[in-house]
Design a protein that fits this description.
heterotetramer, A: alpha/beta, Glutaconate Coenzyme A-transferase, nine-stranded mixed β-sheet, three-stranded mixed β-sheet, 12 strands, B: alpha/beta, 6 helices, 19% helix
């Protein structure tokens, strides 16, 4: 199985961005999803929220313009766009819980056919904590999970039933992997798009789940 | 008789924090943390603190100082990644860690400060967070979450006046105003101690009624956890 | 494709408010009320509105305009004193009034806006407000209160930009930011329409994410209900 | 029964103020209680909250300095002191409900021996609404009711059991009338002070309640 047809990280993020519309608000999880802030076309006029208390994240600061008090939820220095605002964590998560965030993009360890997501804990491994992930998946209007299709050990992350501790139940709307785009619906994964040259067989998803 | 909340130094401001207290500490990661209060506390002979903070410091900094000196019995937080000192203490059972989803964490602290006795949120339903909690069905199944208060809060603001009115810079606000509401005694350190009235009344981020003590902080490190620069 | 929330006039901004809608209206008494929106609505042929507002105008002014033109079926509010037009309609059974304690009113609106499905408050326990409500004992006996949302909110702010970031003057804030959070469509009129970025990001009182439409208001009366001057 | 010994409105307010301490926060109800703002000695350094969203009310504005957006909960123009702040109604009532207001001073129609208060509605009369009264009596650390001792018809407002619709249950700490100061405690009214020259008989409170 060759991986030469697989989408790159940037390509995956482009696919994520293709779901956005002008004026939408977007929350980005830690890791790959933060790439969205850097690759977003300006004409989309997206407002990026970071749950530590800012709406209007723009990307990375120019050298010398970084501020220790201006960070995203991944604790990375950021810059802001015009029209940005700062607020406390109760309002920030109220914005999320209240359904005012149009898209939430976050990483995943497993997504199952019922839209369940596991992405915060592997029993026996290091404990990191769920941070804001559980609030985000229950609050955002559309939850997009972006992750590699396979674990490092080679098993698919799109499964019939999550085996890891859950982040949320029935919360995932769209999954973007390096092999394609999928929607968990009615106990199956609907294939929205496959990376060109990738066959359904390569997905390693049991045929009764597709 | 004049009434003032202004203290001259961190040591006197935190002097009555005792062993077995519950302590809230503001900041997100290393951003907006009360460095002076943490330093003063780390030199005190206290133990068995229950610490409520989003993170318990990081890479040897922030609240890790209280961790290393074995002052913390229990940590209530939302994210503990990137903290080898904490991991060591978890593995050796020296510390108990309770993890709470960040939105529920924020709202529980607000509830404690603002007299809400409990609230229902969908966050955590169907996960281990729901274990032992009352569930009620609204448009979605929700968990009953209870207020989270503390004996003391230590927080940092950019500007503050002698009544305790505060103003926070950029993303350094986060949990700090909520913690000020939720603690019996709130101790604030500021980068700048301004005249009463200097913060425009409309733009006070936290009214001074929630603050009991305030002092001018010194020698801030204001560490950046992950420096990312435009390439 | 550019995306803008800016409308040119009140008439077009409220044009799709229909009969039987639930409408929130900001302000406290006559302070900070959306005068332009109310005027525009009073000229529309709509009926059976459910109006959520602290007061239903006063002495012929404010929402009384909608009252007189018989557009309001039900009023949900906290205080209705000094309003002879409302009294008349209550006595003749032309309008239904639901009274809610003001703190519960505020928090229910916030809850609707911020995704809290219910909360417990001691306010109203042992009074007629508790009738039919679930009671739970915490440190005190508390009532379960539910979110209060609306189809539309009409509010006024001192300053606003094209994204909908708002800044309120003095005590004109009150319920307005909460209502903006709680309504499906929030329509804002401002004394001053400013450039995006002109309101300092830390001092935005309501982030524009909660606003769907905004326009520059005109000809404000800004009535004073009770003028009291130092003697 | 002569009323010449009765305390004046201003005297009643002075008595209310005598309970305050330096740095205290106070909420004032509509009507007589607003007099507190005008009679308060400056050296007490009191912060007056008004539930429509201001902490630091100072009294009335000077002529020409009134602002239509600067009012108290009674919708009267006010001025503010240095260190004042403005906020929304959710935070304002959170401040109240959360126990951060030291004293709440409000009018009353009836107070009973169990500390119950009726002050918002007389069945069959005009409906006005409870406004913030129910939140205030349940939230403030100390609730002081200030009212004339007798109704216009001459019956005492301190009663065994409130007959009017309740504002709160077991909430009143101190009652200041034009005849004296009282504390409802254990089913009785403890007399704290009587206006000089006023006898216990003049109170018209049944002796078993005193």
């Amino acid at each position: 199985m060759s991986t030469q047809n697989y989408w790159s990280k940037n390509k995956m993020i482009e696919k994520v961005i293709s779901f956005f519309y002008s004026g939408a608000s977007v929350n980005l999880g830690i890791g790959i999803p933060t790439l969205v802030a850097e690759l977003l076309p300006k004409e989309l006029n997206i407002f990026i929220q970071s749950e530590n208390g800012v709406l209007g994240v723009a990307g990375r600061p120019k050298k010398g313009e970084e501020s220790p008090t201006l960070i995203n939820a991944g604790k990375e220095t950021i810059s802001i766009r015009k029209g940005a605002s700062f607020f406390d964590s109760a309002l920030s998560f109220g914005m999320i819980r209240g359904g005012h965030i149009d898209f939430c993009v976050l990483g995943g360890m497993e997504v199952d056919t019922n839209g369940n997501l596991s992405n915060w804990m592997v029993p026996g491994e290091k404990i990191t904590g769920m941070g804001g992930a559980m609030d985000l998946v229950n609050g955002a209007k559309c939850v997009i999970v972006v992750m590699t299709h396979f674990t490092k050990k080679g098993s698919p992350k799109l499964v019939k039933k999550c085996s890891l501790p859950l982040t949320g139940v029935g919360v995932v709307n769209i999954v973007v992997t390096d092999l394609g785009i999928f929607k968990p619906e009615n106990g199956k994964f609907v294939i929205v798009e496959l990376a060109s040259g990738v066959s359904v067989n390569e997905l390693s998803i049991p045929s009764e789940l597709i | 008789m004049d009434y003032s909340k202004v203290f001259t130094d961190p040591k006197s401001a935190v002097a009555d924090i005792k062993s077995n207290s519950t302590l809230m500490s503001g900041g997100f990661g290393l951003c907006g943390i009360p460095e002076n209060c943490i330093d003063a506390l780390s030199e005190m002979e206290i133990t068995n603190l229950t610490v409520i903070s989003n993170n318990i410091g990081n890479s040897g900094r922030g609240l890790v100082k209280l961790l290393i000196s074995k002052k913390i019995k229990k940590a209530i937080c939302t994210y503990v990644g990137g903290n080898p000192d904490l991991e060591k203490q978890i593995l050796s059972n020296e510390i108990e860690v309770e993890l709470i989803p960040q939105g529920t964490f924020s709202e529980r602290i607000r509830a404690a400060g603002l007299g809400i006795r409990g609230f229902y949120t969908p966050t955590g339903f169907g996960t281990s967070v729901a274990d032992g909690k009352e569930i009620k069905i609204f448009d979605k199944a929700c968990l009953l979450e209870l207020p989270l208060g503390a004996d003391f809060a230590i927080i940092k603001a950019e500007k503050g006046d002698s009544y305790g009115n505060l103003w926070f810079k950029e993303t350094a606000r986060a949990f700090s105003p909520l913690m000020a509401m939720a603690a019996k005694i709130t101790i604030v350190e500021v980068e700048e101690l301004v005249e009463v009235g200097e913060i425009k009344p409309e733009d006070v981020h936290l009214p001074g009624i929630f603050v009991q003590r305030i002092f001018l902080g010194k020698n801030y490190k204001n560490d950046i956890e992950f420096l990312k620069i435009e390439e």
